Structure formats: C-alpha cells, structure tokens
Amino acid sequence: MKTRINAEVAIQAAMSAAVNYADIVTDQDPDDGTHVVPGELRRFLARLRLLHGVPFSYIVPDAELLPVESMRFFYIDRAWTDALVQGALSVGTISSADRSQLEAVYPHIRDEVDEAERSIRRPREEARLVAGSGTITGFVMRSRIVSGWPNLHVRAYSRDVIADDELTTAAESHPDRMKVLRMERLAPAVLFVLFDGVPAVVHIEEPRQGIQFGARLDPDDPPNNRRAKVHVRDCKTGDSVPPVNDMTPANSVDVPFRAGAPGVIDLTTLRKRLAAAAPNNDNTTLEPNEYALQMLRFPYRQVFGDPDNQQGQKFYALDSFKATVALSSWKNTVTAKLAKVIK
Amino acid sequence: MPRTGHFILHSNVMPPITAGPYELRTDQSGLPFTVETEVTHIRVAAPRYTMPTEQILSSFPPANAEGAFGDRLPQIVLKRRTLPWERNPSGSTATSPTPWLALVVVAEGEAELSTATPVAECFTEGTLAKIADPTDKDVEQSVYLAVTETVVKKIFPTQEDLPLLTHVREVDVNDTELANGDDDGWLAVVLANRLPVFDKAAGKSVRYMACLVNLEGQLAALPPPTPPSPSFEYALAQDWSVLATVSTSGSPDHLVMGGVSMAGVALPSNAPRRGPAAPALKQAASTTKIGTDLDGGATMPQQSVGKQWVSGSAATAGVTAAAKDPDAKRKVRDTMAQGFRYPIELYAAEKVLRFPVLAHWSFTTSEGATFETLMQDIDIGLLGTVPERAPNAPAAEAGPEVVQTGHIGLDHRTRRGDASRAWYRGPCVPFPTPRDSNAKDEPLPLAHAADQLRRVIPDGREDLSLAAAFEIGRLLALSQLSVVSALLRFRGEQFGAGRVREILAELVPFALPELKGERVDMGRFVAMQTIAVLAKNTDRMIGPQRPVADPGRPLRVDGDLDVLVANGLGYDLAALRKRADAVGVLAALEQTQAPVALKPGQAPNEKLVVPALRAALGAELQRTLGVAAPPTRVVIGPNVRGVARAARKPQPDALDALIDRAPPDDETEDLP
After folding, report:
1. Is there a contact between B242 and A274 (Cβ–Cβ < 8 Å)?
2. Alpha carbon of A171: minimum distance to chain B alpha carbons (Å)
3. Which of A254, A257, B33, B184 lies 20 to 30 Å from A124, alpha-carbon distance?
4. Are the beta carbons of A84 and B482 separated by less than 8 Å?
C-alpha cells in the first residue's frame, strides 16, 4: 500500500507546527537553556541589576560618602534594583492591556533575571551558576592603589579558609570562595566589586606580575640618607625568620649600596652579609639561587575580615523607609473611604 | 615538577656548548679497513643583538607602568632556561657561569638609546674583535645603549655581581600565576642591580628604562668592586638632560656637521669632545629641542598619574599614533625610549661605551607610598559612613545629611517648583534589606510609573530612592535602541499573541489553543484552521462540486444504418444490400471493398481529388460549427452529403444545469 499524503494530512502537519510555534520562537540559548524572556533582554536586565550604566552619583550620592583613600562595603538593596528593572520594562507599555500583561509575566522575568545576573561575569572553565541569587554585597574603593596597581586580585571567602599569609589561594570553584559578580574600575581610582553572597573575609592582593625581588626601603629616612633592609630567610625552608612582620637586627641585614651611585646595590657585599646572617647556611657563601631566595618579595595581601563576626546588624527598628502597604490593601482602604464619602 | 604555588630556584642551567659554529667529526676505528672521517658543520644559534619577543615571558615593572616600584628590583623572565649562559662574555667558546646578559636600569638623562643601527656598530669600537665569532648576527640592525664610563662605573653590575643576578626558576606549568603560559616550566630570570628609586628630595617621579644588554667582550669595562656605603641619595649618575635645551637652530644637521650654539649650556663634563667648534651659522636661538627634531616626536614631560588617565596625554597619544603605523613595533619602542635619546656621544668628553640592547622598556617610579602602606592607611567602613567632624565645626562645613539607614537628604524641587528636601538612598546600603515588603503582606505590585514608588515617610519628607531607580532604569533602557526594540519585539511576540487570541475568539467559530506561557503563531493557526473548515464544508462555503467527468451527448442517427454507412464510406448501397441479404450486414461490410480513389503507387489525379477533399472538409466544418453554434443558419451546398443540417437545440445536460444554476454575478461589472 502506497503511503499517500492527502490534503488532510498536510493541513494537520501545518496545524501542529503552528501550535508548537513556541518551540521555534522561545529563546533557546545553547549555553543558557530555554527561557521566556529573550536572551538579549535578559542579559540587559541582568547587567542593569548589577548596576552597569547606572550613573555613579546614583550609587554614591555624595562625595563625602566615599572620601579619598577609603573603602566602603555595602549590601545591594534588591528593592532598588527591582525598581530599576521595572523602570526598564515600563518602556513601551502603552495601553492598560500592555500593563496587565506585563504584570502577568513579571514574576517570570524576575526569576529569570535573578538567574541571569549570576552568569554575566563567568570566568572561563567555571560552571554556570544556576538558580536565583540571594544577597548581593560588595565594596567600592577609592584609592591610589586602584590607579597605581592595575589588575588587583580581589577574592572573597564565605569562611576564612586561607591563612592570611598563605601563598596560595583557593580555586575559583572552591565552595567557600564567593563568586565575583562584577569587578570594574568605574574611574581610574575607583574600584567597584560585587560579590554573590555575604563574605566573611575579603582578600585584596598586589598584582602578581611574576615573583618579585627587592629590599625594603625605610620610608622615614631623609632623602639624602636613604637605607634599605632585607628580611633574612631560612636557607633550608625558605621561610622568613620570625618575627615576620618586623625587621629586627637578628632577622634582617642592611643593604649596602655602591658609593655615589643612586640605588645601586652592592651585591657582593650584600651576599656576604646575607650568608653570615641566614640560618642553616652550610656554605660560607650563597649560591645565586640561595641569594635569589633571600631577595624574594611576595605580593602583599590585605585581608579584610570581621574578627568579632558582627555582620548582619539590622536596623529594622529605625527603618521607617520601608514600603509596607500592598497596592491591593491600599486600594481597599481608598475604596472604603470613598464609599463613605459618597454615602 | 614542583607543586602548584611552589617553585624551585636553580643557580644556573649551563648549555653543553655555547652558541657558534661547530665542526662535527665522526671517526670510526677498529675496522679492517680505514673509514674516512665524516665532517659536518653545525651552528648553534642564540640571540645576540635582539631578543625574540617569544622568548620574553614577562618583565617587571610592567612596560609604561607608573607606580611605587622603588623597593623592587626590575627583572625580565626569559623562556629558554639556558639563554643567559649560551655565550661566554669573556670571548671564549667555553661555557661560563658568568652570564652574558645583564639588566641595566638607567634613569632618564643618564644614557642614550640609539635608533636602529647596523649591528657591527652596536659594540664599542674595537670590542667586536674580542668576541667569539664576530660575524654571527641574528639581525641586521639593532639598538645600542651609549653610556659614558662614569655612568658605567656607577650603575653597571660588577663582574662578581653578574652570576648573582641571573637564576633559573622551575615552576608548575599549570600554575597560571607563576608559569604564565610557559611551555616547560623552566624560566631564566635576569635581575637588575639597581632599585628604581623615587626622587624623594624633589618629590618628583622618575622615569627609568630597563635595558637587557649584551656584555660580550666588555667585561673589563665593568666597574671594580668598591667599598659599600650604608645609604644612598637620589641623584642621576650623570645628567645629560641639559642637552634637551641645546639649540639646534631647528635642524638636526648641526649635530653631525657642527655649528650648534652652546651658549649657556653646562655639560656634565668639562668640554664637548667633538662637539661644535666654531659656530659657522649664527642664528637666533630657538626653543626647539633636540629631542623633538631627532625623533620627530615631542619630548615627554612627566605628568601626574591622574592626568595621564585623562585621555589625550602626550605619552599615550604618542604610543597610540605610533601603533597605527605599519612599522608600529619599532615606533612604539621608540616612543617608549623618548627621554633616553640625548645625543650623549656627540658631546661627552670621556669615552662612551656602547652595549647592544636586546630588549628595553621604560617605566616610572612615582612617590614612595607602597601598596602595603596605602592599603593599611585606607579608611574602611560601610557605605553611609561619613568622616567625623569636630563637634564645634561651623555650619557651613556641615557634612551631608546621612542617617543610619543610609538615606541621605538631598535638595529636591517639586513639580510645582517648591524647594524642599527629600530622602534618597542608592542601591548600596549599609545593612541587608528585605527584597519585598513584609512577609505577611503580599509582594508589592509591579510599578508602571515612577510615581507609584514615591513614598512619604513619617517625618513628612518624601523618600524618592525607588522612584529614582525606576526612572534611571527607564532612561537606560530608552537610551539603547536595541533594548527598546527587543522589548517591543518581546511584547509583540508574546503579549501580542494573547491579545490576538482574545480578538479571534470573538470572531472565529472554532476553539483556539490555550496560551500557557507558550507562544502560538496565532495567525498561522487561524489560517490553517480556516482551510480545514473550508475543506470539510465545500458545498456551503466554496460551491457545489463539479462531477469528475460529464457524460457524452447521444449520437443522433436518422434512417437505416446501412444507408448511412454506405453513404459515409461511398459504398454502392444496392450491392451492399444485395450481399447483406445473403450473408448479413456485418459480413457484407467486411467483404465489400472500400472504393479507393487511388491505387497504391498511383499518382493522384488532382482534378478529381482536390475538389472532393475540399468539399468533404467544408462539409465537416459546417457540421461541427452547426453543433457548436446552433443558432447559425448555414446554407449547405448541394454537393455535400451526410448528416449536416440545421442544428436543433439539444436537450439540456449536466453542464447546462450547472450554468443555469450559477448566480448572475458579473452583471454589474460590465456596466459603465
């Protein structure tokens, strides 16, 4: 029996294609899955949520809130960012039909943008974050550090898992490491960072352009008599001789300079001094690699933490700024009052 | 291999042989016959005048960077671990633990970096004879560093320092922060011996250039060890920057030909060596600077960090312009070398040494504040913290009106023009806030206009935070056409579907699909549905069906069959009848020979045939016309035989019935 396509079969096929049109039109991002809101719109709204493009004076309304050489931590007010998104969505709502439909679909938009905002900044080879986010926190920093040391490393941890002076860091996918949602230099000296959660510890590290070598100049010396010191390391372990944060005669040597030459180190003499001062030195002198070990300077890491863990202080008792009346209950009140007036 | 985050330091990694030409001789002995020696020539190549960029992994401080680098030794990291030992600086071909590379840091004004020069001229005169295999060159042209002996004595490393300044680092290849994209994890590091210190006395940032120089043949020129000094003071080793003020009368020719006015310029040494003797041309001193004329670019005065960030800084503009050139690589380096181009060689009284420069970059050391001190002095707080004021500060200096919730009081002009104060709080708040209103109540509804989000708080002032947010969001969306069109398309596709459905539901008699978050192409659905309904109800909606085939009309035959046949075929009717009586009509027809006008092979007699054929044709035509157009009365000629006659009106058949039933629809159209 031959298979025949008659008009009825053809119409049925076209009909099902029309009904399943959703499969064709619904936004299906290969990265992102299926969504109601088109990808470009979702990403725009998510970037808006992360305050991309919001004028800085709306973020920090007064210069006194962010003085020179300061750093301010904050929570993101989700009601504010929601209002931002609502404002963007209000574009082109002309009739009340548009508005009622927007109201119907807004919960979906909100959920999808919640998810999208966590994948705006996704480091390479990191898994996509799914589901909506909770609290977003961050800090804004205004300092010469930002302009003088481009590519600062900023890391946040939900628990203090890394010792403050440990050389390594936790991997980006480490469960205790907070995802950075946005890190941007808004101005040459202003750094804006958003974290996905409330960090317990924040590390800011000098950029690691390779391992560096150097001495420590004493900042208080007069300009015509500048001195430098080198912290001595144990030849066996490579660890700094304690106390780590202090230069004592026992754990440091003075750096000899070439006479009459600005900043030129007399390496041969320095090597002799280091060889004499470094503990566990088996030889009378230092090999070039041992010498390099002594001269190593590691990038500086500043740790911001809360030693007493008093975060999350709430000001609800003071807060008279919260909007608490829902529109429907307010409407009821108004209608009831109106009814009285009309009577 | 070391663990991630760890590395191993090696003093050096010696190559088995140094770079240069070699002869490989292969002898074989112990055989009953002699074997001729096999001689092959090989050349071990290594950079000599230019470091290939792929061999440079990183440099510190970063090129063109500005920062407090004063307490860090500049360094360059090379990918091939044996590179610093691949040549012997003393000129022999044996390997030596003394590296042939040194990183020299010169401050602006201390030395001259040449433009591209043939490599033979990159060494001090007479040095080329002292190095191994002087003809070996990796490039035709390179740059050299011209420094006076005084400067060499002050800032170049001593021969004993050289091994200490080079070491090899072994790291895990997968450690992005340490290996930085190296292939085998072994890196050679060359350190400088000079801290690029900040000019603390003058409070000025200092521009330095780090040069990776080739020391081959010039170890003897390096300074001898001197007694150390416990401290130092910032000063240039030798300041040639006065050369920038030498008038050249607007032309670089005088530098070569002599004749530059040296009035009022005090050089670091007593008298110019082969400088201009007698001013041949007396021209008015112009303000043109030598650097400008020689380089074709502007000299680069130092700017503050803040100013350099502002677009249009001379330094960045120069680099940007140079980068557009096809010869960009060289020009960018040249721009970076500005300030190191004073023609020292022309003026110096003492001997000027030349060192080939394999790689160079410049950076600026700014004030003494280090990362650590800046970080520790930073003021930390939650947003909304304002600096404390003295309790008796004058009212004019009062700070912003900030409350504990993070709200700030700002001047507000109402729509009626009244000046008042309103509260505002940005998206960054000093404590966690609830996203929706209190849990017992339902979430706040979606706002459609900013005014819906204006709040009045108990103190009587307005809180405009959310209204401002709404308005900013609206303006940001409106500012991007792509977003506006995406919104409208989104609405058209999804919301539009719902609206169309409602309208269609009123119009069409069949059920429409439900919209449950999925989008349906409603137009197509309705079109298809309509076609399906049409197909089911053709009689009512399109018209009655026409039968597949109409029955033919009956043939009308008058008279006897045999008469008709005989007449038609031209038989002799009488003979046919006679024979039919005997054998029957059909057999008689079979037996009767049809009269043929022509026998086979016989030429037709045109006089007979043509009139006959024409007559037959005419008659048949008339007959056909008679059937097709019955009203036409045709006078049939007497010589025509057959059934042709005046046609009668036929019985109406199915087609006639259809035509009769058709509505008279075209009547009006033809009317004028």
Report:
1. no
2. 11
3. B184
4. no
Which of B237, B400, B429 faces A77 most closely, judged by CB atoms?
B429
Q: Which member of A87, A97, A108 has the closest CB to residue B472?
A: A87
Nearest CA in chain A to B456: A321
Fill in the DSSP letter of residue B595. Answer: P
Among B69, B159, B164, B441, most A C-beta atoms within 10 A, so best to mutate, is: B164
- CA angle, corner B371, sides to B368 and B375, nearest 5? 115
Q: What residues of chain B lie within 8 A of the CB of A325, using their CB?
A: 437, 441
Q: Does A317 touch chain B (CB under 8 A)?
A: no
Question: Could you tell me which of A129, A266, A102 has the C-alpha nearest to residue B227?
Answer: A266
Whether residue A76 lies within 8 A of chain B, CB to CB, comes out as yes
How does DSSP classify residue B493? I
Nearest Cα residue to A88 out of B471, B612, B301: B471
Using CB atoms, pick whichever of A65, A89, A265 lies closest to residue B194: A265
What are B363's two structure tokens? 């950076």
Give the separation between CA B275 and CA B240, rounded to whole angstroms: 14
Q: In Å, what is the CA distance from A153 to each residue of A71, A183, A205, B182?
A: 15, 10, 5, 21
pTM for this structure?
Answer: 0.57
- Residue B93: partners with Cβ closer than 8 Å, 6 or more residues away: B17, B18, B20, B132, B133
Is the ipTM of this structure higher than 0.85? no
Backbone CA torsion sign across A88, A90, A92, A98:
positive
The answer for A 125-154 residues in CB contact with B (under 8 A) is 135, 138, 140-141, 143-145, 147-150
Distance CA B297, CA B319 (A): 11
- Alpha-carbon distance of B180 to B174, in angstroms, equals 9
Cβ of residue A337 closer than 8 Å to a chain B Cβ: no
The domain limits of chain A are 2-62+77-119, 216-295
Q: B302 by DSSP, 3-state: which? A: coil
Residue-wise DSSP of B501-565: HHHHHHH-SSPPPP-SSS---HHHHHHHHHHHHHHHTHHHHT-PPPPSSPPPPPPP--S-HHHHH
Cα separation, B216 vs B101, in Å, equals 8
Q: What stretch of H or E contains A217?
A: strand A216-217
Let me know how long chain B is.
Answer: 672
Report which of A265, A61, A243 is spatially closest to residue B191, judged by C-alpha positions: A265
Which neighbouring-strand residues pair with A266?
none
Q: Is B109 left (phi over 0), alpha (psi -120 to 50) or beta?
A: left
CB B141 within 8 A of CB B121: no
Distance from CA of A2 to the nearest CA of B (A): 23
Partner residue facing B5 (CB), from A21, A167, A288: A167
Show pLDDT as tens, one digit a residue, over chain A (343 residues): 455 666 676 667 666 655 554 444 455 555 566 677 788 888 899 999 999 999 999 999 888 888 888 999 999 988 899 999 999 999 888 888 778 778 877 888 888 888 888 888 776 556 666 666 678 899 999 988 887 676 778 888 887 766 666 656 666 667 777 888 888 888 878 999 999 888 888 888 877 655 678 887 777 777 778 888 888 888 777 777 777 667 777 788 888 888 877 788 888 888 888 888 877 777 777 888 888 888 887 777 788 876 554 443 434 434 445 555 666 777 788 888 888 887 7
Which among B360, B304, B347, B313 is positioned nearest to B116, based on CA atoms?
B360
Q: How far apart are CA B167 and CA A287, in angstroms?
A: 10
Do the beta carbons of residue B343 and residue B290 sit within 8 Å? yes
CA distances from A182 to A49, A53, A195, A270 (A): 11, 13, 7, 45
